[in-house]
Amino acid sequence: MNSTFKALSDPTRRKILELLKDEDLIAGDIAKHFDISKPSISHHLSILKNANLVLSEKVGQNIYYSLNTTAFQEIVKWLFNFREEK
Fold first, then answer.
1. Is the C or the N end of the chain the one with fewer CB within 10 Å?
2. Which CATH architecture best describes the domain 2-80?
3. How far apart are alpha carbons 58 and 54 in whole angstroms?
4. What does pTM read for this prediction?
5. In degrees rounded to 5, what are phi and psi of residue 52?
6. So where are the chain's domains?
């Protein structure tokens, strides 16, 4: 869970997740939304993958990135454990 929250703490990574919520994208398409280098985008994607928030799938020469919805369900479940039961 620590790597998840560390990954979510960065605004660039949060924006990447927002982009992936609508569709699966390759790194080059993600990079078009930022004023940072492609290696930096790759680094952010690596952190998101290591935190299990993003999945990758190689299709031909491209790697498509998508949200790992299971990981987000686990985060929400964890957060809901803090609400008070009545």
1. C
2. Orthogonal Bundle (1.10)
3. 13
4. 0.84
5. 70, 20
6. 2-80
